[in-house]
Write a structure and sequence with these properties.
The complex is a heterodimer. By secondary structure, chain A is mainly alpha-helical. Chain A contains 17 helices and three strands. Chain A is 66% helix and 5% strand. The model of chain A has no long low-confidence stretch (mean pLDDT 87). Chain B is flat. The mean pLDDT of chain B is 86. Classes of the chains: A mainly alpha, B mainly alpha.
Chain lengths: 427, 462
Amino acid sequence: MSGESTVTTRSKVERSLGKRRRKESIFRILGIASTLVGVLFLLVFFWTLIGQGSSAFLQTFIEIEVEFSEDILAPAGELDLAYADFDAIARNALREKFPDVTSRSERRELNQLISVGAGYQIKDAIAGDPDLLGTTLLMQVPAAANVDMVLKENIDRNLGEDRRPISDSQLEWIDALIADGSLVSKFNVALFTNGDSREPELAGIRGALMGSFYMLLITVALAFPIGAAAAIYLEEFAPKNRWSDLIEVNINNLAAVPSIVFGLLGLAVFINWMSIPRSAPLVGGLVLSLLTLPVIIIAARAAIKAVPPSIREAALGLGASKMQVVFHHVMPLAMPGMLTGTIIGMSRALGESAPLLMIGMVAFIVDVPAGFSDPATALPVQIYLWADSPERAFAERTSAAIIVLLGFLLVMNLAAVIMRKKVERKW
Amino acid sequence: MQITTLTLIIAAMAAGAFYFGRERSLSVASGPSRMQTLHSLPGYYGYYTAIWALLPAMGLLLAWNLIEPRVIVGLIVQGLPDAEQSMSPGELNLLINNIRNLANGDIVSGEVGTVLQDAAARYLEYANTGRWMLAVLTIGLATLCASLAWRRITPKFRARNHVERVISGLLIAASSIAILTTIGIVMSVLFEAIRFFREVPLSEFLFGLNWSPQTAIRADQVGSSGSFGAVPLFTGTLLITGIAMFIAVPVGLMTAIYLAEYSSARIRTITKPILEILAGIPTVVYGFFAALTVAPVVRRAGESMGFEVASESALAAGLVMGIMIIPLVSSLSDDAINSVPRAMRDGALALGSTRSETMTKVILPAALPGIVGGILLAVSRAIGETMIVVMAAGLSANLTANPLEAVTTVTVQIVTLLVGDQEFDSAKTLAAFALGLMLFLITLGLNVLGIYVVRKYREEYD
């Protein structure tokens, strides 16, 4: 009786075995597929990003023979930097290359090939060296964004004339310029030295970078000491009571509050109540400090917890006060961990944009901020602003700005990883 | 005198106070050789004097900066002719702005009359006097307090205890900032939200089906009556969150299972950092990718299958948000799976179950509370996510469950209502704070619940 039942169980198991193994392999494949989803997304993401953005690091310039004509620059006999028509000089120089362009409308189309930045460049040249007046000089001035886009093949030449932002005759001139070697492609310095601009070929991320820099400066100056102090108190001194529990719950919860809510806090408290100017890196830095504080506190607490109690006991045994134990023995040992947490908090602050939208850091700001209360944007917000612009050239620049932002984040995270590896010690 | 200069002066004074305090302790102990007669190390006497030089003066500086602008404005208004004093608060505010701009040499709107010029001159005068008063007061206070502290130094004086008490007070203050932040958030959204609910009844906000926050400027304008029914926003948020969770939960969970149970250690060390990169990409970058790369692909794919797809479809935003949340779900699930005791897994395997059976029938049920807690945190993250939806989801409040249509979310509306010009007494601006309050309450609930579940579950096996 019992022998018979073993046989049936066994055969039952054996009969189901194939099905179970199939299930097992399906489960395994699902696991691999899920893991690949994330990895594949990253590959596609970086591939499109670099494909779109890498060309923005090069910029097209037109080489023209600039004549610093006295008629235009010094109509009254003296060099007139304030009111002289520098654009006209650039236009004349380009027209030299195409003597057969005569009609007004054609001339206007030809002028569109040069960026308005050419005028500024000529102005800077003569301002720097007034002796240029009356001479000619071979200069490379920025081409208009559309010329740049044609050269980078971001504008499809085969589309009908009315469906592309550049006309047939403009294309002809561009080809002629390419043929005589007047179009040169150089590293896009403007991207890193200019503030924002309505003209894609003149727009740069310098202003946004400086804005982000000032904000992070405030954030690190506030969040690191406060976060470290809070962590020390909670780990080393806090009595087990309601107040400590409340602080604890608050910190854990704040770490998960949507960042945009911190923006509302900044708007209501820092701007409306304390009347700190809008759009200033000061407000942004304050909001970001509050935002990163929980991250830093949690990391710092873990670092303090990792210091073995024997260190504390030894110091106490030698007669150190509780405060001396903490500041002379525990803190130095926990410092690398605290700093790692701070860097990670900073990299989160650098990528944050939603709260900054609330406190008016989305304005169009051309000037590079020079202090904590100048109006500014931040790098991620600049990305948001450029992503909204319809011009094809801005899409390219957005990708380039993203590459720069990701580069900064990568460096910060690598620093954190290396620091963790270097100082990690097993007790 | 600028505030930075003043701060630097006070800092220098504190450094000086440290030096003199330390010296005095040595001299009252009659020389370094007889240091043991002192209660504390000489440095502590230095710190004690420095603290007295620094803290009261800095406190005064801070308080002054908060109060001064108000006092000056009050004085200016008092000095204005009666005609200006009886203006409405809005006009008065504008006038004061003009006075301030004129005093700072900025551009002034409107004509500059004698009244304005007088007021600007007085403004400059007050500001100047204020600055000098502040400088004299803070420096005087620092000197006074430091010298009083200096005189207290005797060999028996317990300087270390005093210094440590101050430090521990600072530590408590630092840790209380978390509570202050929470109170600040609640207050700032609550007050404006209450003002909003005075104009728009709570029931209409919570149950109204129509959202169009444009309020009419003139009474005879058409189509902009301003209706504040937030239901379409809630459904839109839920739709996008649902799509995101539909991606993130299975993928994240299976990733965690695969990495915990199946993969070799080498694959794990490569894959985990890669997934961490996914978590480290800023949301604005995801938003850019969703709007410019994913949305067109979704649209083309949908249209080739014969569906009509909005160019800002909920699907594109939800998909990308789902990818963004994968690392969160997978790391929290990984924690939950790893905290199931080995004995349970070994027992199941020893009884002859396959690895997938062990996982689905033993480990997952045991880890379920932890996973659910993690999912709650992920949902809260998805609801509060802003940049992806601002860039990739639409602005029009559609009440629909169709993922191919454009919907809008709570966060998108907060951003659109508050970016740009704003006046703080219109229902349109206040609505953003009411939405912020809802957002805060909902995510708070999810977080507290999630953290509680995760924590409670972890304790069970420890």
